[in-house]
Every structure is written in structure tokens, then in C-alpha cells.
Amino acid sequence: MSDPTYDVVIIGAGVSGNLIAKQLGLAGKKVLILEAGPAVPDSREQYMENFYLALAKTPESPYPSIAGRLGPGVGTLPNPADLPTPRATVLAIGQSPAESHLIQSQTAGAPINAQGDVRQLQFSSTYERVGGGTAWHWLGTSLRLVPHDLTMYSTYGVFQDWPISYDEMETLWGLAETEIGVAASVAQQEPLQAAIGLTYPPGYQYPMGPIPTSIVDQTISSAVSGMSVPGDGNENKNSEGGEEYSVFVTPTPAGRNSQPYQNRRVCAGNTNCIPICPIQAKWDPTVTLGDALDTGNVTVIYQAVAVNIAVENKSVTRIDYLQWSADANGNLTSTPQSVTGTLYVLAAHAIENAKLLLLSNDQQGIANCSDQVGRNLMDHVLYLAWALADQPVWGYRGPLATSGIESLRDGEFRSKRAAFRMEIGNEGWNFSAGDPYTTTLDLILGTNNSQLNPQGQRFGGVALAEKLNFFLTRQFRFGLLLEQAPQAENRVTLDPTYKDGLGIPRPHIDYGLDTYTMEGYRVAADTCSAVFQQMGAKEFTQPTVNPYPPGRNPGPGDFSYQGKEYHLYGAGHIMGTHRMGADSSDSVVDASQRSHDVPNLWIVGSGSFPTVATANPTLTLMALAFKSAQSILAALGS
Amino acid sequence: MTTAPVPEQTLADFANMSAALTGFQANVLRPFLDPVNLSGLYYDFAVSQVGQPAMDALLGAYRAIATQPVQIIADTLLETASPKPSNQAQICQSIVLVWYLGSWYKPAYQNNGLLGAVVQVVSSQAYTNGLVWKAAQAHPMGFSAFTFGYWSQPPASLATFGVNVSSGGGQ
Among A169, A249, A404, A451, which lies 20 to 30 A Cα-Cα from A368? Predict the structure, then answer.
């Protein structure tokens, strides 16, 4: 057979791959996308039905080839060894290799090493392998980084600088905001200039006006007016270096429509951005994929799992992939195929990118002269804190989050501990305690898993409805995204034992937290408690909560630091595994996300982030994809 | 297996009993025009789980007190004052749970005393019609009939959502 030759072959139909395909297609270049997972469906009705019927409405629950449905009662998940495209799922966190795609070096009890780092902790973020990618279930948060996020080494003496200027990023963020259709107001963000240095080019306007704030937001905003907190946490309030930082709420720039945009509707507040927006008012990568296909220059092959990036003389010569299909009983067949292009883009997200780079060249690896491929695996490790307000705030309404406290994202403290942003949740205790299920069960059965029924009473009738109303309308939570430090020993490797249904080695994860990051947890906890106190809210934060169906083990995600217990939650922001830098000896890609070692290969996505800062990553990884598209076009001689 | 249609009076009693148990108005659970027919679905599902004799006995117990105030009916059938609810009260708990959450939970007596073991989401419409979302003055996550920006204003009253609010109760 004779393969068509493409200008560019892209692996992965997610945010970055689709954006690059669209830009190249618009420029008249012939592009092929190989997508490991199933096709984007004609309508999202089936995905919605999957979601409605899922017992555990986890981020993965709507999406096919799933791991996610537990059988009747407490069941088991499908074995990744039987699946063509297994992926990390929330339900599989902490489970054995018979259920978890990721093979984790993890131990309950999280040992501390000589440096004081907690090791063998479970990595707790997940991703999809499906047409459209993981950003089917991004939240829509579209915050820019702040200037010091790009200069952590030069400003604070820690980690790495980004090899790209803030001025250039501002232009790229603007392109990404137009692509997504970000709803925000520059004027509303203005207080963040003095607080954390956030600026915009003169005259810049977002594509559409802001999303209205929720009553939860409004209540917190009023309560914290004039409040400040010490950079080193409450315990050190009067100690040396305890500068005060002002606390205030700002509406969050959001990739959801406040007006019709790209033939998509305005947000109706389904409170379901994760796992799935029912009406596509939130931008997702399938929007951009549609645009790419409309250029007439882009082709997608689904169910095509890349297994080797063939490199000769520092140049990619072809991609080998397995074209798979499954019968009604899940029996797999696969056919080896190859495809050639002039240039290549690896856009399969941070863990699968690293896996394929390490897998290629008969598992000798490619593009890895720096030995950084797979290392510096990071997340925005999440601190969850929840409380009952002293008045109704009416959660479970509106987009999942509409505001946050961004004023603590930068400061001198970053030389010593992780910064964080504080996302305000509009979904009551859904994330934090599995509500409204947990409290409903408690009040009917007389249990106390929510902590809201300490007497173990049972209710029925109007008394039940009113009791539930009292609690559910007062619930709210903060989700704090902490800036995890890059560490070489946090890494993705090829597991030597476990393989997927196509015979491909699965990712092995070694993961932990250093004291810089854990010190951030300590201040995060103090800060949340201080805000709750300021509000007159009653805090219910628990270090260990089991949000899983009865009988499921949440696994070893708990750790202690300075005598206090914490639970590690993932933000779903997987970063760092092929970091960018100016120096090819300690980075994998350059500022255009082009491989230092293999110049006709671009390795794209949040895996390129050398440091993770505190902004949700999608906007920035899309901005970087615009830069990659520009450099690819330049390399093609356009 | 062919089964005779469930008599109208049985379904009406099941819906009225459910209204008392849940605290919602009966016409919310079983509207005059009812294409979704959750009361029929839940009656059938409950019978499939606990058996016809247990359902018949429960409805008999309900009919004996059907003219009492609804809160008394709820507290009596759910045995809320008892430290250990009977098997029949546990079935009532499962019925309240399915109306609130759209999922059937096994009565503890069927599961070695283990509380809260879930069987399944009965149907997608069961999920999207869960009463718990109305009790929160909200909407099911992933199924909103409200319009842009509603979340920046307080919701309608709890009574508007169909709760039989007590005097002075509700927000």
C-alpha cells in the first residue's frame, strides 16, 4: 500500500493537536491527525445518557471505552489489560493494576525521605483518550499567568524560568482567548495588577463580556472586604517576614459563552462543566476540530494508537500505529500501519506523550538526550476546604465556578513555599463530600458521613425536605490549586510488567511532594480557615474523606506535614513531563515546543510547562500551541 | 412473564404515600399529565426488589393511616423515632431515596445490615427528576431548565419547588 504523505502528522486530537491542525489547515497544509480513541460523536446525547446513568459521576463518566461504570453495587472496573486505550480514571485512583491504567509506586502511609519529602504518594489526576481529548471536561477557567510565573528562578531563586517573554505570551493568550471565546472583563481584573502584576496590552478587550457571579461569590466577596492574610500562614503571624497580602474575590475569565459565539449557545448554568456541558456553551476541543476539518485539509483517523516514532539521523521518518477495532463483546483486533509526513507533532497529553517518547526506538527512547522525558511530573495539587455559611448561598446553581481569590498567587513567599489560587465552588459539597448524595443518605438512614447528622437522627416528610434545604443551600467550598515544585524523581516511565489490550507497556508513576509544596498546603489550610472565620462560616474540612461508593478504597492519597493530616486531591492538570527550556541539556523542547534533539518533531501540551504556577493550564497550553503552529509553518517554508 | 397492569388505585396510593414520605406535593410526584410516569416506574422497580407481598403490606399500612397529617404518616412509616427501623421502614427509606436521588439503594435487611448500598440509577429520567435538587432550590447537575445568569439571583421559594413546607419553614 502507498501511504499518502502529509505535510504534518499529529498524534492526538485534543486541545493542542486540533488547534495546530486548524492553523495549518487554514494555511493550506495537508494534515493527518491520529487519534487513539473513538470518534467524536455526531451529538453528545449518548455521552449525556452515560453520565445520567453513571452511579459515580466522575470526570470520566460520560466518555466511552470506559472504565467508569461500576456494576451493580460495588463492582470492579474493566481491566486495562483488556482495553485498547485505557486511561487514568478517578474511580481507579489507588486501585490495583487490575483496574488502574497507571501503575503507581505507592504505599499507604506515604514515607518521608531524608530531604523531608513525602514519597510513594498516589498521583491523583486523570485524562481521557477519546476524540476531543481531556478538555471535554475542562472547567473553562481561562486565567493568564502572572509575570513572575515565567521567572521563578530569576525572581525567587527557585526552579526554572520559562524561555519565553511575558510580552510574547500576552499576544499568544489573546489568540487563545479568541479561539475559545473567553468571557471576562479587563476592568474587573484590574485590581490584580497591583496585587500580583497581571497586565494586559493597552486597549485589550476579551471576546465577550463576563459571566455573572454567583451568590456564593458575592457572599464571600462582601465578607472578605478589607481582609489580609500573612504570607507565611497564621501560625507565624508575628514572625519575621510575615508580610500581609490582601484577600479579594475576582470574577474568573471563563471559556463559556455569555453571548452566542461560534454558533454555540450561552451558558444555562447546568453546573456540570465537569464532566460534560450538556449544551456546549463551554468551548471544548471538538469545536476547533470541526473548524480544522472544515478547512478541507485535515483528516482524522480514529482508533489509531501510535506505538513508535521512528527516528533516523535525528529526524522522524514515520509514525507506526495500530488501527484497532472491537466487536460487541470487546474482543480486539488491530492492524499495524505506518504514515509519513514532513513534520510531526506529538500531542497526546503529558503522560501519554512521555510514554510514547520512551517507547519509541525499541524502548531506547527518542528526543531524550536531556534525560528529562517523563520527569518533573506535576499537578496543581489541590487543597479542598468546605464549610456551611451562616446564611443561604444557594450552591448547586450556575457554572461550577465563577470567581476566585487570585490575589495570593504571587509574593515574596514564593522563594519558600508554593503559591495558590482559591477557586470558589458553586456545587456545594459535591466535590468535597459527594453531596447531595451523602447528606441525603445520612438524613434518611441515620448515618453521619457528611458530618451534618452527628446525632444519627432519621428524617422523613417535610422535616427531611426542610433539613436538606437548610444544609444544601448553605454549603460551599474552596478548591486551592497549589504550585507543585518540579522534581526529577516525580516521573513517568514504562512499566516493565503491565501492558494494555494492544500489548503496549503502561505508564509507571513515581510521585511525591517536597517541603516547598507541602508548606503551601499548610498556609492554604490556614488561609481557608481564616476566610471561613471572617465569614462566620462553620468549617467541615476533613483530611480524609471517602467520596467513593461504599466499599471502595480511596487508596494511599493521605499524607501528614508538621503534625497535620492532608488528603491529596488531583486538579486534573498534568504537566511537566517534557519541559521547555533554552538549554538542551536540561529540557526536552524549546520555546516553540520543538524537540531539541529531533528538529522535525514538536512535543506539545502542558507537559512542556517547566513550572506550573497557579493558573489552570488549558489557556496557556493553547497559547503555546499557537506559537508551535507559527514555527511549524515557518519550518514548512510558508 | 406477563403481568396484569397495576390498578390505578394502587398507583395513586403509592404516589400519595411517596408524597407523604418525601415531603413533596403529590402532584409533583404524579402530575395529571405524566409522560415520564416515575411513580409507575418506581412502583415496579420497588416490587422487583422487595417483592409483591412486602409492597402490598406497606401499602396496607399506609392506607390504615392515610387520613393522618402527612408528617405523621412519614414518621410512622419510616419509624423515625425508633432506634432500629423494621424491614418495612427500611423499604420506605429506599422509596424516599429513589425519589430524592433517582437511584435504588438496597434496604439494609437485604444486605447484611449494610446501609446505603446502591443498586443502580433507575433511569436517566429518574436522575433528572430527583427531588433532592428541588430541595436545594436548584436543578440536577447536568440538566438545567434555567436561563443565563439565573445563578446571580436568589432562587424561588422552596414551596415553589413543590415542597409541602411547614408553617414558617423554607427559605
Answer: A169
